[in-house]
Amino acid sequence: MYDFAAEPGNNELTVNEGEIITITNPDVGGGWLEGRNMKGERGLVPTDYVEILPSDGKDQFSCGNSVADQAFLDSLSASTTQASSSAASSNHQVGSGNDPWSAWSASKSGNWESSEGWGAKPDGAGAQRNTNTPDNWDTAFGHPQAYQGPATGDDDDWDEDWDGPKSSSYFKDSESADAGGVQRGNSRASASSMKIPLNKFPGFAKPGTEQYLLAKQLAKPKEKIPIIVGDYGPMWVYPTSTFDCVVADPRKGSKMYGLKSYIEYQLTPTNTNRSVNHRYKHFDWLYERLLVKFGSAIPIPSLPDKQVTGRFEEEFIKMRMERLQAWMTRMCRHPVISESEVFQQFLNFRDEKEWKTGKRKAEKDELAGVMIFSTMEPEAPDLDLVEIEQKCEAVGKFTKAMDDGVKELLTVGQEHWKRCTGPLPKEYQKIGKALQSLATVFSSSGYQGETDLNDAITEAGKTYEEIASLVAEQPKKDLHFLMECNHEYKGFLGCFPDIIGTHKGAIEKVKEGDKLVATSKITPQDKQNMVKRVSTMSYALQAEMNHFHSNRIYDYNSVIRLYLEQQVQFYETIAEKLRQALSRFPVM
Predict the structure, then answer these.
(1) Domain extent for 254
(2) In a domain, 148, yes or no
(3) Any idea which GO molecular function terms this record carries (predicted)?
(4) How many angstroms separate the CA atoms of 276 and 267, rounded?
């Protein structure tokens, strides 16, 4: 059904859309099958890339190659080639070396452009996964570019790939590193892809905020998330000691007797210095759990994307590790996420049994979605509905404006990156070559008194060629970090439309309270409980925004200072080279 490019040395088979293959093993495992093409070549192909043709009395795994079958597939292929080719190009341009952010500006960072605005999806926290989704997502990424989320089968499907401590190498010391990819595979958000009932996703739960607002009596959970009032308003309670997690030492592993390969990363929390290893699929599982549990209250940005082609190339591995590092650091810096049981278990499990037990427990956690607010305890008086609505509107207005600003800077930065790595260096090179050509012409005159001048012009030309190289390399030293920071915040901001939508939905439910009381659908006490609970939600939103603002101020101060420092150094280096070139010219 789709083009698939085999990874060299990985026992995979390249197939093209519309091609007929014979399936020699329908279930190799891990979402792969083994097939043979018309040339007799055999290899692995993703299961979701192929469709079993009607057998017409033939063996059910034999994809017939009759003239009629081929004609049908050819006509089908012709009708879909345009859409598929545009999808493939959008897939692969992400990895272009000169423009690592080409896909960022193209995609939306949230449902900001929705005609109904913030309130369009009042219960949509679970839809955060879709917030970075371009309009043509189903066309461009509707099929897996290798990975469609944690295993869809039973627990054994996951556990057979488990990368627990099989050797002493799983508990090593650490180094520093990084996190990478663009545009998360959001089509994988369907709850069926990870054995979570749909009602565990707030965005799909029919009761929505009513589940929390109208609960007769909230159970007293063991976990408590206090909210205090500090100098800048409501805030989360920060732990007495903080920690980071170093992502390092990417290693290539294999499974299925070496038929399939993967990359695993070493994670070392700075507060324990005890390392564990995780594959990308485990990071993805953590992201899913955090999104399901906290997504109604806390923005959980997507992980870097999964890809097939080139996934073992050194540059891709380095970029992904850089962005995984950034993602983990973000999670470690959040006082609620970092202290949560699921996050701690991800970093501190000791063996396979402990991992599996913690995994199952996390997946059965009922304090998820809007029910996460039932664990929150503001140490402050209840707010009235007018103030609650004003706070919600203020958050919506700011995050929308910041999203616009971040996208603008990403667009401008992307254009500047392309210019600095393309046309601009070439212009300097042209100047350099033109000066050197001129010096060569002057040298042919035979005039004895111009040797010093000709040498100086030649050196000036070489200087401009050196400047060309400096210009081409400079974005990696300054613009890269500014763009990465903006990309991270684009991910955060893309979560807010659904969070705000959840809050607006709750506010609307409370506004309907008097009518419900009048029609005896709820009691006055129920209405009072609704106001109290929406007040708790408001305190949580304000606490999260205060955390967001404090991080935003720190991050942008750091990254823009770095950018300016590197720019100053860059231009000083160029100025010094030009001074040296100038000094070679004779004074007349």
Answers:
(1) 244-380
(2) no
(3) phosphatidylinositol binding
(4) 5
Q: For residue range 245-260, what is the model confidence (pLDDT) as tens digits?
A: 999 888 876 665 556 6
Please indicate if the annotation marks 289 as binding a ligand.
no
Beta-strand relationship, 22-29 and 32-36: antiparallel
Can you tell me the distance from the alpha carbon of 554 to that of 237, in angstroms, rounded to the nearest whole number?
A: 19
Over 70: is that where the pLDDT of 435 sits?
A: yes
The Cα–Cα gap between 323 and 481 comes to 11
What tokens appear for 382 in the block?
A: 């209840």
Q: Would you say residue 194 lies in a domain?
A: no
Closest CA to 535 of 327, 393, 326, 377: 377
Domain boundary among 15, 33, 52: 52
| Position 374 in a domain | yes
- On whether 279 is known to bind a ligand per the annotation, the reply is yes
- Radius of gyration of the chain measured on its C-alpha atoms: 29
pTM: 0.68
Domains held by the chain: number: 3
The percent of residues above 70 in pLDDT, for the chain, comes to 70
Residue 100 lies in a domain: no
Render pLDDT for 220-274 as a digit per residue (tens, 0 to 9).
767 889 999 999 999 999 999 999 999 988 887 666 555 667 788 999 999 999 9
Q: Domain holding 10: CATH number?
A: 2.30.30.40
For residue 286, the domain's CATH number is 3.30.1520.10
Q: Which amino acid is at 183?
A: Q
User: Is 320 assigned a ligand-binding role in the annotation?
Assistant: yes
Q: Are residues 299 and 426 in the same domain?
A: no
